[in-house]
What does this fold into?
Amino acid sequence: MNRLQSLGLTGGIGSGKSTVAQLLVGRGALLIDTDAIARALTAPGGAALPAIAAAFGADILAADGALDRQRMRELVFADAGAKLRLEAILHPLIGQQAQLEAAQAQGRLLVFDVPLLNATSPWRQRVDRVLVIDCDEATQVERVVQRSGWSADAVRQVINQQATRTARRAIADALIFNDGIDHAGLAAQVRALWTLWMTPAP
It folds into this structure.
């Protein structure tokens, strides 16, 4: 098998996807984090803010000029149409920035961290393999509550907005079940996949 050139990395909130992303970076991959791009686009002065304010009203912006994330989260949870309008603004801009960052790969494995990756996503056609990080929903809730201070209900709302575990598993070329293992065990699974995918066939 030839060396892998691009990998789609996905998983639900609290799955440990970000930890796996950093383990891959530690092995030499170039990470393109679509969530980080989205945050930059909606930070003060972000390129997406004029279109977001035009679509949702200027009061969707916080006092510092950034997107009011809590207000937008509540709006999206209450109105599926709002979610679609927001995605229509953000997704093309995210794709453009991801392409610019990908140009810096210089032979390294490209890892696209895409929480919304699914069977119909354009990202699915863009990557050679998909790695899914999975765990039980109860574990997701526990992890996010501990690290963020959110309520369990708030975490479940986010989970319900994301792809289902079944849908993610259906597109996986490889899956790491990150439940009941420690960091060393997780790192060992990442190392095994790296060896499999990045060692050229003789």
Q: What stands out?
A: The CA atoms of residues 44 and 66 lie 4 Å apart. Residues 44-107 form one domain. The longest strand covers residues 6-11. The beta strands are 6-11, 30-33, 110-113, 129-134, 174-177.
